[in-house]
Each structure stands twice: as C-alpha cells, then as structure tokens.
Write a structure and sequence with these properties.
Blueprint: E1 2-3, E2 14-15, H1 21-32, E3 39-42, H2 50-56, E4 61-67, H3 70-87, E5 90-98, E6 101-104, E7 118-119, H4 126-133, H5 142-147, H6 154-176, H7 183-207, H8 214-223, H9 227-235, H10 242-255, H11 262-274, H12 278-291, H13 296-306, H14 320-331, H15 341-350
Parallel strand pairs: 4-5
Antiparallel strand pairs: 1-2, 3-4, 5-6, 6-7
Helix pairs in contact: 1-4, 6-7, 6-8, 7-8, 7-9, 7-10, 9-14, 10-11, 11-12, 11-13, 12-13, 13-15
Length: about 350
C-alpha cells in the first residue's frame, strides 16, 4: 500500500505493507488522519456506497474495519459482505473494533480469534512509526480534525469581522460613484480588479513561508466570492506547493465571515484532495456546504470524493490565462458559468 500525505518533490512516497489484522489496525488512523470511533472503514475507499466504488475501480479484494458495538457493526458488515459477494469483490479480512479489542468476521478459529476479542496496541507498531516518520499528524477524533478548520474565535474573529465590514463599505462607496447603470456588473468588475491581484499575492506570500494581515485576508475572502477570482486562484494550485496552499486556505476558511466561507473552504478541499488527504477535504467541504449548501464547486468536489476518485484526478481546471480568456469571452456575450466547474464535473463522472 502506498500512502503519500503530501505528494511534493520533497516528500517521497512511503510504501506500507498490510499483512495482518494488527498492521491493518495500525494503518487505519494514518489513512483517515483520525482515530475512528464509530464508523465503517474500507481500505482503499471511503464512501457511502463502498462496494459500488470498489467495483467501479475494478478492485477485486479489500479489507474492512467496523468501529463500534456489535449491534451497530454486524448489520453493516452483513450487508457489505453480501453485496461484495454479488459483484465479485473478496473481503480478505473484516474486523470489528471496540475498546482496544478486535473481532474477525472471517476467522472462526477460537485459538487465534477468541470469542471475547483480541486485545491490541499499535502505539509502537512499525506501520504507526512509518506514518509518524512521514510527518503526518493523526487526530484523536474526526471532531478534532474538523476543529482545525472551525471558525476562529476571540480577537482574530473580531478583527476579521471589522475588516470584512470595512471592505464591504469600501466596495459600496466605490460602486456608488459609478452610478446606477450596470451596478451589479460594476461591483463584480471592481472586486475582481482589486481582489484578484491580492489573491495572487497572498498565494505567493504563503509559498514563501509568510502570512497576510487581516485587512488583506478580508479583501481576499470578499474577492473569492466572485467566480472569476476563485477560478483564477484554483488555476494556481500547483501540487508542488500543496503544504503552503493548505496553510493559506485553512487560515482563510477559519477567518472568513459567514457568506464568504464556501470559496476558501472549497479550495482547501481541492488542495487536500491533491495531497491524498480525503479526511481534511471532507471536513473542509462540510464547512463550505454549511455556508452555502448549493455551492457548485463544493458539491462537485464532494461527488468526486464520494466516488472514490484518486488524488491523481485532482487536476487544475485551466491555466490562469485560460481562465481570464474564458471570463473575458463571457463578458463579451458568451454563455455564463464557471470555467472550472465543468472540469470537476468530468472528474466526478470519471470517478
């Protein structure tokens, strides 16, 4: 099994071999980025309809682990095994985990698989050490992972709220001077003209290991609500800068005020997917869709992730020049829409 949490030129892939129930259980937290509690995990795919995903990706064998009480896990495992058999997928191992013990649904030998479960501890397992050596942080729970992109509080939140309101007032004043004719178009063009260079500069600052102040962060989040600005930023998400991009969009997802969260959270989901971090991508999409449940980029990315599409399919929609040309053509009378969304739709279909 190959796992690469950040596929940059500086972070080579690590190959982890799974050959026993213990090594399987040691690998799960590293693959999910958190310690599962009550969930069903299928190696190589995590989605609502795991068997369909395995079948669609031409996988013929898999291992599954269910976390929780027997009454919760066994019905799910039964349905999973039945459906897997129908489509020719062999479940080489199926485990239930509760209170640091595991039970196998495949092994029926009481000598190696006792009825009261097998106690285990993977703290010092070689697989655990391999993930730790990669620099990957494993969270105690999914909730702890989600907290890394939760709304900021305290003075950072108050400062961002003031800065965002100041940007909004500035836009209103500037647009007001242009008169009523074409008010909406004028507002979009003003935000794009001022905000797009600021977004590009913020990306460069983070790539250089720097950050941006709250006034710039407010402008960036307001500007990203314009699809032209968001798609230009999207087109700049080169995977070799994945760590810097993750820091940027994580910071902005936390700071963005209600109504401005969907774009940075969706961009965070995209770069997390690029890096093979499906858990972070999903919690970022939770934030995006909570802010705007119809946000198309977030919905399309969720379809891609739920379909089991691998990180290799997280391709850039266009180059920045192509994005600019597309929107210029739209403003000249072409069909409206997002230049990048069609590409993600194709990714979701392919997955």
């Amino acid at each position: 099994m190959t796992h690469n949490p950040s596929p940059t030129a500086q972070s080579p892939q690590r190959r982890v071999r799974i050959g026993s129930p213990l090594s399987l259980l040691a690998a799960i937290p590293g693959l999910t980025r958190f310690q599962p509690d009550h969930s069903i995990v299928v190696l190589a795919a995590v989605a609502d309809n795991v068997v369909d995903i395995l079948s669609a990706q031409a996988m013929t064998a898999a291992a599954a682990v269910g976390y929780g009480a027997e009454a919760e896990v066994s019905p799910v495992v039964g349905a999973l095994r039945s459906r897997a058999a129908e489509v020719g997928v062999t479940l080489t191992e199926v485990l239930r985990v509760e209170d640091n013990r595991y039970w196998s649904y495949v092994c029926q030998n009481p000598e190696c698989c006792p009825p009261d479960g097998t106690p285990f501890d993977v703290t010092d397992h070689p697989v655990t050490r391999a993930f730790a050596a990669s620099g990957l942080r494993v969270f105690a729970s999914r909730e702890e992972l989600a907290a890394t992109v939760a709304p900021a509080d305290g003075e950072p939140a108050a400062a961002m709220r003031r800065a965002t309101r100041a940007v909004e007032r500035q836009v209103v004043r500037c647009v007001g001077r242009m008169g009523r004719a074409g008010h909406r178009v004028a507002r979009r063009r003003l935000i794009a003209a001022v905000g797009q260079p600021m977004v590009a500069e913020a990306i460069q600052r983070y790539r250089s290991g720097e950050e941006i102040d709250v006034e710039v962060a407010a402008w960036v989040t307001v500007a990203l609500r314009e699809l032209r600005v968001r798609d230009d930023a999207w087109a700049r998400m080169l995977p070799e800068h994945g760590d810097a991009h993750t820091r940027l969009w994580s910071d902005l997802t936390r700071l963005a005020q209600p109504g401005y969260v969907a774009a940075p959270a969706s961009l965070l989901a995209f770069v997390a997917w690029q890096q093979g971090d499906g858990a972070l991508a999903n919690v970022a999409l939770d934030r995006a869709l909570a802010d705007s449940r119809r946000y198309s980029m977030a919905k399309l990315l969720r379809r891609a992730l739920d379909s089991g599409a691998p990180p290799s399919m997280a391709r850039l929609p266009m180059t920045p020049d192509e994005v600019a040309a597309s929107y210029d053509a739209q403003e000249a009378g072409a069909e409206p829409g997002s230049a990048g969304s069609a590409e993600v739709a194709e990714v979701a279909e392919a997955g």
